[in-house]
Amino acid sequence: MRVLIIGAGILGASAAYHLARLGAQVEIIDQNHPGKATLAGAGVVCPWATEADDPDWYLLYARGARYYGTLIEELRGQGETELGYSRVGALVLAEDRARLDTIEGRISRRIKDAPEAGTVRRLGAGEAKRLFPPLRDDLEAIHIPGGARVDGRLLAASMLRVAISSGATLRNDYVSLRLNDGRAECLGSDGRPIPADEIIVTAGAWAAQILALLGLRHPVVPQKGQIIHLHLPGVATSGWPVVLPMNSYYMLAFDDSRVVVGATREDGSGFDYRVTARGQLEVLQAGLGIAPGLADATHIETRVGFRPAGSAMRPILGRVPQIAGLTIGNGLGASGLTVGPFAGRLLAGVVMGESAEVPLERYSPTGPEAG
Ligand SMILES: Cc1cc2nc3c(=O)[nH]c(=O)nc-3n(C[C@H](O)[C@H](O)[C@H](O)COP(=O)(O)OP(=O)(O)OC[C@H]3O[C@@H](n4cnc5c(N)ncnc54)[C@H](O)[C@@H]3O)c2cc1C
Q1: Does the pTM exceed 0.90?
Q2: Which atom of ligand 1 is nearest to the CA of 226?
Q3: Best exposed site among 26, 137, 237, 251 by fewest CB in 10 Å?
């Protein structure tokens, strides 16, 4: 079966990886738009503390975190070493003790069937600061040992590498779609049809542009995020946990003395790919308010990404029933680096006709808002 994948962010890369391993002939086309979310995403993988409570969304969020264990082992087995994934643990913070109690109760309920989260415990302020030294002196925390961080760039590149070594091809182009006798047909930027038995659209925040050509209203829009990368010269940061202050901001560290502070959530942003003064101020104020020890860090860069955000906080995954040969994966929003690898496996299963391990009708592209 010849499968064409439009968009090679974390979701398209995962679909390609799983399809190639299932024996499909895979072609991946990616335009690498400025603001590709996978290149900007922070990489927090820790679903258990979230306050959002849509059960369908949470199901994929939690399964996404769990699937990392399997995927990382599989990729290592393929000789892949540059994965950027580490189970460094997470510190969940709150300004007052009563709120921390409520959050702890929610985490305890959720992890009953999530052994991968590890044994959760409360830390005093000194203990939390020992794990993440730039933190304020007075912050107690809940420690979740199974919390992790991932470098989406490295992980997506690794899945694509394995897909290509299994026969997939990857090229850079901007493609469009048209209807041909009830089937979806893909056209390259030169106007030539690209032959395929099945097309998967994993085009993130840009997907609505090409799906509109098929008469589909696709309810995913860009939500801009500005995220700041800092450097602490000479400081060993690789074991530092992810820090979740339970607002929309967070911090995490990578191996190269780098600390990432994120991020703005700019609804209605369109594709405005600019670092703004207000965005910088907002993120730094939030970050330094929790971790004043970062005040003297070197600013390396500010990344900008467009989260594929739906008005319903729920991924879209599945076949479009009224158009033959068309499957859509999208709407991963602010949690796509967590959900993407697992969701890509689900998409591969849909196209190969396998029975799904979660009830996919809940995520249908023809749900109430689409079609
Ligand atoms: C600042 C920020 C922080 C984040 N932090 C986290 C986090 O901590 N944890 C977490 O789980 N998630 C996080 N996310 C969310 C996550 O990054 C996204 O949900 C995820 O990367 C979306 O992946 P995707 O593959 O759907 O889309 P993308 O990565 O955007 O990829 C879509 C690709 O499709 C291509 N494309 C589109 N149209 C066409 C076309 N017509 N032809 C060819 N190619 C096309 C684009 O060029 C692009 O390369 C964050 C996102 C941002 C922006």
Answers
A1: yes
A2: 1
A3: 137
